[in-house]
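Sorry to interrupt, but I need a hand with the structure work. It will help me judge whether the discrete encoding reads sensibly. Write everything out right here, beneath this request:
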Amino acid sequence: MNFLKTALLLHASSCIIFGVIFIAFAGPVSDYIGNPLAWVVPALGAVLLFNGFHLVFASQRAKPLCPEILYFVAGDFLWVVGTLVLVGLGFVITSPQGTVVSLLIATMVGAFGVMQMVGYKRVCAEARA
């Protein structure tokens, strides 16, 4: 299995797992992170499920769509920046344990973004050369 496909599937697994958790356990997750806005967690779970299945679909292409890979990388970048902003402002993510876990997850998402960018450069740069 090539590097890009592996990165996409790892990212997909993470999105689907967290999406299910965020929907099935929205109340406890919301309480854990200190979120005063109850609707945010299940809404984010739905977005994660959509993104996870999109990642699975994208990973199955014989030839990846390079703009699609950049879309996933951009989403990862926005996740990391969004997490840092929310933690920094003390908004939505307000508990100490929620802060630690959110920063760990943001680190993981950032790593997926880096992996996907490396895969993008390998596959898409070769296609242009």
User: Anything to note?
Assistant: The mean pLDDT is 94. The first helix runs from residue 3 to 24.
